[in-house]
Structures are given as structure tokens and as C-alpha cells.
Amino acid sequence: MTPSPNPFQRPTVPKNGLELLKWAIFEPVVFIKFYKNLSTIQTFTWLVRACFWIILSVTVLLFPFLEGTMVMAVNIYLVFFVTGRTIVSLTIPKNVLYELLSSIFSLVFFPGVFIVFFEIMAGDSDGSTFLMIIYAVTFFALIGSSIWLIFLAIFTLPFYLYHLLKIFFSIDFYHNPYIYDGFILLPLPTVKTRLSRLAYQQPETALAFVDFLLEYRPLQRKLAMHILHAATAGQWAQAYPPLNADKLSPPNVAKEIKRFIPSGDWTQQLARLRQQLISSQTQSNIGVRKTEFESFLTRLTEFRELTLREPPLWHGYYLDAINHWLTVAKEELDKLATEAQTRESISSNLYRPGEALSRDSANVFFGREDLRDDLARKILTSQSMPLFLIQGQRRVGKTSLLNFLPQLLGPRFKIIYQDCQDDRVSGVIPWLQDLRRRLLIELHLPQDPWQPPQDWLAAWGELREYLATISVDKDCKLILAFDEYEKLHRFFKKDVEAAEDLLGALRSFSQHQNQIVFLFVGAHLFSELEKPNWSRYFVQVERLKVDYLKKPEALRLITEPVQLIYPPDIPEQMFELTQGHPALLQKLCKEMVDIANKDLHRQMTAQDLETAINITLDRENLAIGVFWTEFCEDPLCKATVKQILAGQTPTDQYQLLRLEEHGYIIQQGDVWKMRVPLFERWLERYKEAFR
Fold this sequence. Notes:
Strand order of the largest sheet: 2-3-4-1-5
CATH topology of the largest domain: Rossmann fold
CATH architecture of the largest domain: 3-Layer(aba) Sandwich
CATH class of the largest domain: Alpha Beta
Number of domains: 5
Distance between the termini: 34 Å
Helix content: 55-70%
Radius of gyration: 41 Å
Shape: extended
Largest sheet: 5 strands, parallel
């Protein structure tokens, strides 16, 4: 949708010469923008069009002032030089006094009525005085011109007085002095307060007015920031529906007006508050939603206290909005508490299918002790550091294992984790830079702006020297873990020769020290990566295969984290269907908990399991879909799988061995079949749905 134009937008071309003159006086920003875009001919043309109005305005303003200057000069001469009187004399004749008053009034209020009036009273209406001192006019005209320049500097004073009168009447965003005049130098009493109060009530209009002030009224930038804060608070207060997280956004304060910029703590706390609200509102479990909302309410209370510590120049605008949110939030929490009492969940759903488990998900992380022991033993007993490859199918828990390695290995090891799919890893040099950055963070060392050479080998050389320096006298071994390492191969393929030199240097470094371990994590074997050929350089690699969960671990995952009652045969069926595949088993368990909470029963049945299976066998099931679309990307691989599903003997031995090596198929007698029954059921349904 095209955004609606700002209702306060100014035209870019004047209608006529009079409007151009108005721009020059009241719209300097618009005038300058227009003038800068004019050619020499256009400038002359517009000057001609405006000439009449310029002459008229100069005549009206300048001529009376100069006339008044001359009158005052003449009369001062008469008073102090002709009559010989002094300014403190009390015996100045009436006619002389009237002459002097006439000149003063003519200077300030323009001649005309006052001049005629006082000249008549002075008995000198024929103007003979001027003839006597005509030669003095030139000198005093120069003085008058100087005074006129000062007057030009404060010529807006009459307009300011006019604006002062106008503000006693009602004002709004469309009718206020700043709409009509871009050259108001002095503050107008009550206007800031009134417009800020109106901004809280009409935030959308106020924000458009703020844009207008920032673009066309540079003298009113501080006023714009007051209105901006008030409008932002108004958006919070008028959020619809109530507690709308999308409305919890910070004000976009101009960077140069630092006094109005919220602190980093304030904006970060606001972002966390918004995220906490979203987390609460997206929970399907009423108990979890209530718990999350309680956390939101606590954060909101803390945010109010934090707001009070922000500059008093603007923090007051937000207090009413925050208090309103607190009131609405407490009412919402009461509703959730009532709903939770009438619909209490059977069990919290702790399962996380399709995402890497972190340390706060320890209650659903089981097994992998064998990998831990194998890795620790090989590292601690090796004279030179072997390279390790943690390899396994996608979605079987490789990244989860990495997240738990610090806990599994203990303080003797320091894990430096790097996700090679991170957008900061956009090439070989950025990969090395990001690795160094993560090293500094994990080792609590000060960051430094390392700018490596663009040559891959030279950049690695600098990083190698740095690694050698920081690893000295360490009481623990450093493990550099490269998750999704295949991303690096894509970079290496762009310059195979340089990549081969770099791989050789990595191998040499690994073989000649025993403090730093390279740990590559991915779905591919080194022998499957060519140009460059990884297996040629890393012949000493130690492969640690991450496979499915063993049956005891799988049964624990099904029964221990939740408070459901399973008949003995259902956990067995769940294991048989998944063969301990972590992502599939987590998905199946999650659906069982959702069914229990939805139907409010703790005793699970075979029908519940069948329902969970149907939900799990969705076309978008990533654990299986990634096998079919990525691993079987080669049509020959797909053809081999189809032969296995049809009970035929596969004809492509390479694809058969590859499927077996990666653990997707098993042989029973002379027949090959899919290792995981759920894989087979999904493929029977969707194998033709992907091209």
C-alpha cells in the first residue's frame, strides 16, 4: 500500500510572485530549496514576476522609516542647536517639544497622522523647518539606514506579537503559528504544552507534524522532539487491540538533539519488553502463557522505574501511557489466571523439534555420553592435536551436542563456537575475522579492529601467530568448532589453488601443537568434498558420528520430561516409528503433549498416537524434507530410494553405499529398506510432490 502523503507538505513551486515573496519572509527553507533548483534565466524570470511586490513592500516599509529618520534628525537639530536648549531643560517651548515627539512617533509608527498632528500643534505645518537643514539630511539618513538594518534583524517582532495574540485562541496541528511562520525566534508561551498534550491524543497527526517541523522549521527542532515523545507515548496508550506489541517502538529522535535521545538501557529494555509480550501472546499453553505474561508485567514495572531515571525533559510524556499499560496488563493477568484455573494444562510442553537445544533445554537432552568420552579421551591423550569431524544427518542434534559440549567436557576445555552460516561469514577473510572476534569474546580479551591481508594464506598466518600467542600457558585446551563447515567449501571452490594452500597450512598447524583443536561439524564427509579435496589434507581426521538416540535414551526422552501416562506399548511404538531420530521423536512427543493439553487428559491412547503421527507426517516436516530435497538432490539418488520403496534391488551401487554410509537405509536379509518407518510413510505420500 502506498503511504498517504504528509498533510503538512509544502508545495515546491510558488503560484506567483506574491507567494514567492511570502516564502522569502515566512518560508525560508522552502524558498532556499526552490532557489537552488533555478537556472540563471529562471531566477531572472521569477525576480521580474516578484518585482512589483518587492518594490511595494520596500516602499511601504523603507520610505516611511527614512522619512521618520529625517524628521527626527531635523527636530533634534532645532532643539539642541537652534534653540540652545538641553534635554533636561524644563522650559522647552511647546512647539519645539511637539516637533521632537513628532519625529519619534514618525520613526516608530511611520509618518502620516502623527506627523500632521504634531506639526500642526507646533505651528509649523508648512514644513519650513526642513528647508533650513536640508544639507544635514544626508548625514542623518546614514544613521537612519544603520538603524533600519537593526530593524530588519528584528522585523519579525510585529509578527511575534501577532502570534502571541493568536495563541490565546484554540490551536491545533493544522492551525498554529508554526504552520504559517518559519521564522519565529522567540518561544511562544503554552504552545509546547498544548501541542504536546494534543500529540498524546492524536499521535498519527502529531508524527506528521513532527516531520513537517524537522523539514521546514529548523528553528523548532526542540519543539518537534517534545511532540515526538508525546506522540510516541500516545501511540502506546491508544494501541489497538490493547497490549499490541507492535506499538511498543522507541521514538526516532534526531541524532543531533542529544538531550532528547533515550539511553541505551531504555531502548534495550523496551525491546526486551516487546519481545517478552510477543512470547507470551504466542504461547498455546495457557499455563505457559500466564507465566510468560507475569514476566512481562514484571518487566513493565521495572521499565516504568527506568523511565523515571531518564531525562526529565521528556520522560514525563511516557508515564501516563505506561501506567495505562500496567492497568490493562493487570486486568489481562487476572483473566489469564481465571482461564488457567478453568483450563489447567496437563503438562508443560518442553519439546523443541526442529531447533538446536540450548543449555536451558537440558531436561530434553539425553545421551551422547559416548561421544563425550570419545572426544575427551582422544584430545587428552594425543601428542599432536587430531582434527575432528562431528558428522551426521541433518536434524539429528549435532548443533545441540555442540551447545552442550562445555557442560559435557568440563573446565578442561574451552569451546569457541562459530556458525559458518552466520551472515558475518561471507567469505574466507570474513570467516577468519569472525573467528578472531569470537576468540576475543570467549577469552574475555579486549576487541581490536583486525584488518587481515586479502591473501588467504597470509591472513591465516597472522591468525596462526595470534593463536600461538594466546594459547601459551593456558590451563585448558581450545576447541575451535566450525558448525555447518560445508559453507567454507563453497568459498574454497572460488579459488581452489589458494584453498589447497590454506588447507595444507591448517593441517600443519594442527600437527605441530597440542593446545588448539579443530572441530568441524556438518552432514558431509571430507571425502565427499572435492575441488579442493578435503580428505587429501586431513588424512588424520577423527570422525565422530552423531547417530540416532539409543533406545534407553529415546524412552527417557518420551517419558521423563512430561507428566503424561503412557501405556507400555506406546513409547515402544514411538521408538519403532522414529528409531530414535531426535527431531522426529521430539516432534512426536510435542504433538502428544499438545493433544493431552487440548483434550485435558493425562492418560494417552493409541488414538492419540495416531493423531500425533498424522500431524508429524506433514509435507513441511523439515527432518524428512531436507533428506529428500537436499541429500537426494541428485536424480540418481531419488531413483535409488524409489527402488527401495518399491522393494526392488537398487541398481546404482554408488548411491546405495552413500545412503547406507549416512544411515538412511538398512539391509534386512537381501532386501534394503528405509531405516526409519516415518521416513518411508512420508516418502510414500510426498515423494512426487517435490521436483
